[in-house]
Amino acid sequence: QFFSQGFFTSTKKYDVGNQMLMMIHKSSRQSAMWQREQRELQLDRDALDQRARESKLQAAQKDEDQRAARQEAMQIWMDEACRFEATQAAAEKSWMVFESTMLSFIANLGRGRAGGS
């Protein structure tokens, strides 16, 4: 009785239709998963690129800081050298003044004795 009414033949049509719908659904679900994975991969690549840019900026800043520190140290050294040279020159001048004064004093002593005898 079921066969004569086409009950089983119509369920086969529905089965094929359901299978088609399931395949379409599965395919769209896989496509959505693939797209999500691609977005995640792109986000990962973007994050890596950002870290690389930040790393380059940090390295450049470190190089600049080191260059500035070397330049500052060189300037301090040059300032110290100038102060040392100035101190040396002042000491030499002071010594020359002292020598000159002593020689004048000794010369005056000699004249005083020569005149007093």
UniProtKB/TrEMBL annotation:
Region (Disordered): 45-70
Taxonomic lineage: Eukaryota, Fungi, Dikarya, Basidiomycota, Pucciniomycotina
Name by which UniProt lists this protein: Uncharacterized protein
Superkingdom of origin organism: Eukaryota
